[in-house]
Write a structure and sequence with these properties.
single chain; 293 residues; alpha/beta; Rossmann fold; 2 domains; four-stranded parallel beta sheet; 10 helices; 8 strands
Length: 293
């Protein structure tokens, strides 16, 4: 009987040690978490700070987020200033040296992504929430997800060099999956003129060659005036726009007014993978977007 108890304790200790030996990765978004899980597999334990339903521009530096980051070996973010309003505060307050800028666990996907919509000239707050390094919403392009995987590979290999060959293999497989997803959607995507409320879907449109007439917003992050709404509604009608994409965080009254004036349907759709609902993976979200066209 005693030997059985000792055996059980040893086994339990081994399981606990195996769990502890995993790299603890915290991501800002579920989309990023999916990429990390795909490449890290059994070597990582991944948690996302956000659920994909929040606007990642304006999340709060809550104590529970700070605690999660404090316990992490790696923090993976989108970068390109998407999380600039709250993530630096979370990192600073966590007191975790590993995940600060330049640390072994500093993982920013935007570093290996070739961004679009990079502004030129003088950039200041009068222009709205302009991102000086380019549009940060690259996660909606499978081709950009493949580019982002290189940063995940670099950091995982840095933290766990013994597994580098396995991480490289899984990165190759992930890129192949994203290429296949892109090719499948390329055949399905209707090349119909579109618009968006905020430039959150630009990479999706760009990837599939869908003509976009821009955004309802005049300045990013700032609600458009009545005159602006009327102007873009008129333009959308003239140019034959068939659908407008917006996220749940877009002001509903603005969307209703635009739809009333233009007669063009507005599709309210997530721009990130979510932890619940019918967009719980990159593939599922891409299908939702393709179907909305």
């Amino acid at each position: 009987m005693l030997s059985k108890i000792i055996f059980s304790i040893v086994i339990a200790g081994s399981v606990a040690h195996a769990a502890d030996s995993k790299i603890k990765v915290v991501t800002t978004l579920p989309d990023v978490a999916e990429i990390v899980r795909d490449i890290g597999a059994d070597s990582v334990e991944v948690n996302s700070l956000l659920k994909g339903t929040e606007d990642p521009h304006y999340a709060e530096a809550r104590p529970d987020l700070i605690l999660k980051v404090n316990r992490a070996d790696i923090v993976c973010s989108m970068g390109l200033d998407l999380e600039i309003g709250w993530l630096p505060k979370v990192l600073e307050k966590s007191g975790n040296a590993k995940v600060q800028t330049g640390g072994t666990g500093d993982c920013v996907l935007g570093r290996t992504v070739k961004a679009i919509d990079i502004p030129t000239g003088v950039i200041d707050r009068s222009l709205g929430d302009v991102h000086p390094h380019g549009n940060p919403h690259f996660i909606l392009s499978p081709l950009k997800d493949a580019e982002a995987a290189d940063e995940v590979l670099r950091v995982l290999s840095q933290v766990l060099p013994a597994q580098k060959a396995e991480f490289e293999k899984r990165t190759t497989n992930f890129k192949a999956r994203m290429k296949a997803l892109y090719e499948k959607n390329q055949a399905l995507a209707k090349k119909t003129p579109v618009m968006e409320y905020h430039k959150e879907f630009s990479y999706f449109f760009n990837a599939y060659g869908i003509q976009s007439l821009g955004s309802i917003e005049e300045k990013p992050g700032m609600p458009p005036s009545a005159a602006r709404i009327a102007q873009v509604a008129k333009l959308a009608k003239e140019k034959g726009v068939k659908v407008v994409f917006a996220t749940p965080s877009a002001p509903h009254k603005v969307l209703e007014k635009f739809q009333e004036i233009s007669g063009i349907p507005v599709k309210v759709i997530p721009s990130y993978v979510q932890t619940s609902g019918d967009a719980q993976s990159i593939e599922a979200l891409q299908k939702k977007l393709i179907d909305s066209l």
